[in-house]
Specification:
By secondary structure, the protein is α/β, with parallel strands linked by helices. The protein has two domains: about 140 residues, Bacterial polysaccharide co-polymerase-like; about 230 residues, Rossmann fold. Helix content is about 35%, strand content about 15%. It is built from 13 helices and 14 strands. The strands form three sheets. The chain has an eight-stranded mixed beta sheet with strand order 5-13-12-7-11-8-10-9, sandwiched between helices. It has a four-stranded antiparallel beta sheet with strand order 2-3-1-4. A two-stranded antiparallel sheet has the order 6-14. The two termini are about 50 Å apart. GO terms for molecular function: kinase activity. InterPro entries: Bact_polysacc_biosynth/exp, P-loop_NTPase.
């Protein structure tokens, strides 16, 4: 907090030391959509290209020299080029010319001088073309027609809105500069706190371990049979911010794994809900066919018709691959892997992840522990970031084993998320939580594989469906899968 206040005060004081500058703007509306044609013929070309050409002409040397003469030499063409900004308003015919100066009157004079010089330049060019075209014909009627077209075209400008002296300076803006520096200082403070946070803050068992980069600590709430699993997006907000810094250098999919089968699904869901709360679109990929914990928790056991790898094939619709997650728009679920032998088609998965990345802001791939899941090892090569989920009660050897398996694939462990058990019945925070689906009794080791590849085991079975009515206070918003570009 002190750093933020100091930065804000410094920004306010430094801003006051800057020279006062005023900015005025004039606007012109073009009457022409093409260059002058002596015989009035329609030229081939887009109107947007013509407007872009006129914007370039405004900044050319002849126009700047004409504006300098209009200002009686008070500023050179080179200096004028540095204080003038020319913009076109989208695809319409409006060109805005802004000019800066130490005084409000000078700023308005400069902007208006540029407009006058531009109109004179275009008018001279039209006259030169018309004179040359009329001299090239022996037909008086054609010559008269050329002169008529030139008079009608004139300077190609329909309306001019002259600049007026501004009432307030454009700079310095003390409050704005103070706010910007305060925000930067606040973000820097948070970043330093996140990256330097020691691993041992939540468990003395880690005190002697080789500390990795800790992205944050989150509570894990294991569901009970017949009870919904509650996820508080605020619990994972700090981890999401730290993840954003890490993704600046590695913007690919985020692979979430763990030292065992606990915690990973909860962390993946929590990150997705936190990103959803910020208005971002997220794809959750359940790549743990041994347990399908994300399917059980996020969509109440429902899963897409086909796996995510099918998205890498031509003609596969996104509706068959991506399933909206209840609770609000922006989060979708896909599955990957149908058996436990780790066999994956790298080409199809690469294409599928590329298509998915174009439709969402964040791809989270949740896999089982690398020491027990073959498909988890196979997917390491497709991840831009690898996050390890470690419980604060785990022994240091668990982290060592996780690191060894990651490095075996010649991939770096980006960081770890520490989890601590949150008990049911104890008040956590007053803010509401996002309820996803019916929970599980507890998140333990995976079940043995069955014929359909899903399996079941005591303590990880899906809750009864009941009458299909969501719990009180839970709103399910049906959404459509994101538009995935076809290959």
């Amino acid at each position: 907090m002190t750093a933020v206040l100091v930065a804000g005060a410094a920004g306010y004081l430094l801003s006051g030391m800057q020279a006062t500058t005023y900015t005025a703007a004039s606007r012109i509306v073009l009457s022409a959509t093409q260059d002058f044609q002596p015989l009035g013929r329609e030229a081939f070309g887009e109107a947007t290209r013509f407007i872009a050409k006129q914007v370039s002409i405004v900044s050319t040397r002849p126009v700047l020299e004409g504006a300098s003469s209009e200002l009686r030499g008070s500023i050179t063409p080179d200096d004028l080029a540095r204080v003038v900004k020319v913009e076109a308003s989208g695809d319409d015919d409006v060109i805005t010319i802004s000019a800066s100066a130490p005084t409000a009157a000078e700023a308005a004079d400069r902007a208006n001088a540029i407009v006058t010089a531009y109109r004179d330049f275009v008018r001279r060019q039209v006259q030169v073309q018309a004179t040359a075209a009329a001299a090239a014909t022996a037909d008086p009627a054609v010559a008269d027609r050329i002169r008529t077209e030139a008079a009608a075209y004139d300077d190609g400008v329909a309306v001019v809105e002259e600049a007026v002296p501004p009432s307030d300076p454009a700079s310095p803006a003390r409050l704005r500069d103070a706010f910007i520096l305060a925000v930067i200082a606040g973000l820097a403070t948070v970043a330093v706190a996140v990256w330097r946070r020691p691993l041992s803050v939540d468990g003395p068992a880690w005190a002697g371990a080789d500390r990795p980069l800790v992205l944050g600590t989150v509570p894990v709430r294991s569901g009970r049979a017949g009870r919904p699993v509650a996820v508080d997006p605020a619990d994972h907000a700090l981890v999401l911010v730290a993840l954003g810094y890490a993704r600046q250098s590695s913007p690919g999919p985020v692979l979430v794994t763990g030292t065992d089968w606990r915690g990973g699904p909860s962390v993946a869901i929590g990150l997705a809900m936190s990103a959803r709360a910020q208005g971002r679109r997220v794809l959750l990929v359940d790549a743990a066919p041994e347990s399908r914990a994300l399917v059980t928790r996020a969509t109440r056991g429902q899963q897409p018709h086909i796996g995510l790898d099918a998205l890498g094939r031509p003609g596969v619709p996104a509706t068959d691959v991506l399933l909206p997650v209840p609770g609000g728009p922006g989060v979708f679920l896909a599955v990957l892997g149908t058996d436990d032998n780790g066999a994956v088609d790298d080409v199809e998965i690469h294409r599928a992840l590329d298509r998915a990345a174009e439709a969402v802001d964040l791809v989270l791939i949740q896999v089982g522990p690398l020491s027990a899941s073959p498909i988890a090892l196979a997917l390491l090569r497709h991840a831009g970031i690898v996050i390890g989920v470690v419980s604060t009660s785990d022994a240091p050897s668990a982290l060592t084993s996780l690191r060894n398996h990651v490095e075996m694939a010649r991939v770096s462990l980006t960081g770890v998320v520490l989890t601590r058990q949150a008990r049911w019945g104890l008040p956590q925070r007053s803010r509401p939580r996002h309820v996803l689906s019916r929970g599980t009794a507890r998140d333990t080791a995976p079940p043995p594989s069955t014929a359909n590849g899903h399996g079941s085991h005591p303590g990880n079975e899906a809750a009864p469906a009941g009458n299909g009515v969501p719990p009180a206070g839970v709103v399910t918003v049906p959404t459509s899968p994101p538009a995935v570009p076809r290959r």
